[in-house]
Specification:
Layout (H helix, E strand, L loop, with lengths): L1 E2 L2 E9 L4 H32 L2 H27 L13 H29 L10 H28 L2 H30 L3 H29 L7 H8 L5 E11 L4 E9 L5 H6 L1
Antiparallel strand pairs: 1-2, 2-4, 3-4
């Protein structure tokens, strides 16, 4: 097109995630999967042995973390596939859908906790028998969860991976669950305040739902094509490119670490095709 005697050029840019980055993300997910399975099985075994339903439920809740790791690994593998005729923009959305599923798992965990609160308020279930071994196992699993959360959060920021960030938020919710269980165990053992379980569970529900909202909001923004970079920011960057006469339009969609960017610019009338390609 010609505007004011200047040729208009449309440029479409699709960034890709390096293979080395994806391999590192998979390695981190495998490590966290193994640790989550160890934590979950430890809680389930000690919960069944002591008759503590809260610990057993917490163990099954930790299994959701392991399941989310499996989903993340599958999604990461699918997202690594190159563009094809059916997916000309690549398979990056598989990773976004997996992060969305993790947010759904968080909502499911909150529903399970609410169900437990209702049962406790109705007076059903036996009172747990806490032992020093029970406290030791719970403290040990808490330490592992804290390590996993810190490890994944830092890796997610460093690699700019929404998948690792979402999975870390899920594990962080499990940390709050374990802390609540430990506090309620201590109060029950010292004072016999069994009502503390229900009160702590309500706090857990609020924390889990907060983490779920953060994950769902982030992934939802990607699915509805919210711009990861504003037009003003893209325009400011393009203005630094020599020989660009005017920026007609600047758009972006996708994620911050793998955006799809469309730029329409005008160049001088005497600009050759080779020079335009270089710009």
């Amino acid at each position: 097109n010609l505007r004011r005697g200047c040729p208009q050029v449309s440029v479409s840019v699709q960034t890709t995630v390096p293979i080395s980055t994806r391999k590192e993300v998979r390695r981190i997910l495998v490590i966290t999967l193994v640790l989550n399975v160890i934590v979950a099985m430890s809680k389930i075994v000690i919960g069944l042995a002591s008759g503590a339903l809260a610990i057993t439920a917490d163990g099954f809740n930790s299994l959701v973390d392991g399941f989310s790791n499996v989903v993340a690994l599958v999604a990461n593998r699918l997202a690594d596939r190159p563009p094809d005729d059916d997916h000309p923009y690549g398979h990056r959305r598989y990773e976004t859908i997996a992060a969305l599923a993790i947010g759904g798992f968080l909502v499911l965990a909150a529903f399970e906790v609410i169900s437990t609160v209702i049962e406790r308020l109705r007076g059903s279930g036996e009172n747990p028998e806490n032992t020093p071994l029970t406290f030791a196992v719970m403290i040990g699993t808490l330490a592992v969860n804290l390590f996993v959360t810190t490890y994944e959060t830092r890796a997610g920021r460093r690699l700019k991976s929404e998948l690792l960030t979402a999975d870390a938020a899920h594990t962080r919710a499990d940390v709050f669950v374990t802390v609540s269980v430990l506090v309620s165990m201590a109060l029950v053992s010292l004072f016999g305040w069994y009502w503390v379980d229900a009160a702590a569970a309500l706090v857990i529900v609020a924390l889990i739902l907060r983490a779920a909202w953060q994950v769902l909001r982030q992934t939802g923004s990607v699915l509805v094509d919210t711009a990861p970079y504003s037009a003003e920011q893209l325009t400011a960057w393009v203005k630094e490119v020599p020989a660009v006469a005017q920026i007609v339009r600047a758009r972006s969609r996708g994620t911050v670490d793998a955006p799809h960017i469309d730029i329409d610019v005008q160049v001088a009338r005497e600009t050759t095709a080779d020079h335009t390609a270089a710009i």
